[in-house]
User: Which sequence fits this backbone?
């Protein structure tokens, strides 16, 4: 007899993040300490950890996860930064704003 798949429920937005907008500054230190091809130690992940106070942050060129909450579409400038950094390219500090609404996906401005 085949097992029934468990119902997967969406993880709720963490209360400390819901409805908040954060200004995220990716610094030279983040770039120096970041590790290519490691979503947990991408310079943007390090900056997001500092901005949000949440340690569970992963950044890939196509997605950002903050405390398990996932955004599938990243803006082009973030995608370009991650690809350049992972490829050993020259990247510079920058900043962006990220809004985590009460429901739905993460909005990056």
Assistant:
């Amino acid at each position: 007899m085949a097992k029934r798949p468990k119902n997967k429920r969406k993880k709720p937005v963490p209360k400390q993040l819901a409805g908040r907008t954060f200004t995220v500054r990716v610094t030279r230190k983040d770039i120096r300490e970041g590790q290519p091809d490691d979503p947990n130690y991408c310079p943007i992940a390090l900056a997001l950890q500092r901005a949000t106070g949440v340690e569970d942050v992963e950044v890939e060129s196509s997605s950002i996860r903050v405390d398990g909450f996932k955004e599938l579409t990243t803006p082009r400038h973030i995608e370009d930064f991650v690809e350049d950094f992972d490829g050993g390219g020259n990247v510079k500090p920058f900043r962006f704003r990220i809004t985590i609404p009460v429901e739905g996906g993460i909005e990056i401005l």
